[in-house]
């Protein structure tokens, strides 16, 4: 038995590690990190792409990492390294990994951001709207006509009759991205003009009255670029994990079939 490490009084063999990682539900995270590291290494070897760090970037990454971990001096750093079981060589890899991942994202999907943004824009646009909902169709119809006739304001009726948290704000909701709303609401708001009151419509158990207050188009600013880069990265990573899982299941199935077909001796 080859001993891999000792924690307290327990000696853990190398052959036990995979089983322990699986038992503590840590195997998917390890798999994720290994996929990322391998991809970064492959990208770094590419003739057209380089994600190596300058000494200045390494120093800045370290300082940012230490600030995040609240490591204020060399003593704090050494104590943290002992707790994590890290060497100085491993420490540099840990402190610069976040920056390398960001460079990898940019190198892989940076030139696809604009196309992805316009593909996703309809879901990223935001709206501010007024909402009044009730479970009684008769009340919904009456309130709609009262708003239309300007007998009462939308805000006053929402405060008195709406059965959701929007009652606390006079029916006002947002800004909120369209992708966070019910598909029926998205269709209604996307096809209306600001100030237009939409008649009661059945959505699930509710009868809702809507009024679009403001439409806010999404912008491809730095914050949006970072968000979309992360979305593309996560989608890629999930697909890589899915493929690895499928390959593993096929391997297990093959091994099981081979065991079944073994002749009895």
Automatic annotation (TrEMBL):
Keywords: Isomerase, Rotamase, Signal. It holds the Pfam family Rotamase. This is peptidylprolyl isomerase. InterPro entries: PPIase_dom_sf (IPR046357), PPIase_PpiC (IPR000297), PrsA_foldase (IPR050245), Trigger_fact/SurA_dom_sf (IPR027304). It is an enzyme of class 5 (isomerase). Gene3D superfamilies: 3.10.50.40. It comes from Nostoc paludosum FACHB-159. It catalyses: [protein]-peptidylproline (omega=180) = [protein]-peptidylproline (omega=0). PANTHER family: FOLDASE PROTEIN PRSA, PEPTIDYLPROLYL ISOMERASE. GO terms for molecular function: isomerase activity. Its EC number is 5.2.1.8. Residues 122-214 form the PpiC domain.
């Amino acid at each position: 038995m080859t001993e891999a490490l000792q924690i307290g009084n327990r000696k853990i063999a190398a052959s036990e590690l995979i089983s322990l990682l699986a038992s503590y539900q840590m195997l998917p995270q390890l798999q994720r990190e290994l996929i990322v590291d391998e991809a970064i290494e492959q990208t770094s070897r590419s003739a057209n792409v380089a994600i190596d760090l300058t000494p200045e970037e390494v120093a800045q990454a370290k300082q940012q990492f230490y600030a995040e971990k609240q490591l204020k001096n060399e003593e704090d750093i050494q104590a943290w390294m002992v707790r994590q079981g890290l060497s100085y060589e491993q420490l540099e890899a840990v402190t610069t990994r976040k920056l390398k991942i960001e460079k990898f994202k940019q190198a892989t999907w940076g030139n696809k951001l604009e196309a992805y943004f316009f593909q996703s824009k309809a879901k990223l646009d935001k709206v501010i709207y007024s909402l009044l909902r009730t479970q009684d169709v008769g009340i919904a119809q009456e309130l709609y006509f009262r708003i239309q006739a300007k007998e009462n304001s939308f805000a006053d009726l929402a405060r008195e009759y709406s059965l959701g948290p929007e009652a606390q704000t006079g029916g006002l909701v947002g800004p909120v991205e369209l992708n966070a709303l019910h598909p029926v609401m998205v269709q209604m708001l996307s096809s209306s003009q600001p100030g237009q009151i939409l008649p009661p419509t059945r959505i699930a158990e509710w009868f809702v009255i809507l009024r679009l207050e403001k439409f806010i188009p999404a912008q491809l600013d730095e914050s949006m670029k970072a968000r979309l880069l992360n979305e593309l990265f996560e989608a890629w990573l999930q697909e890589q994990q899915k493929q690895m899982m499928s390959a593993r299941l096929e391997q297990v199935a093959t091994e099981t079939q081979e065991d079944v077909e073994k002749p009895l001796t």
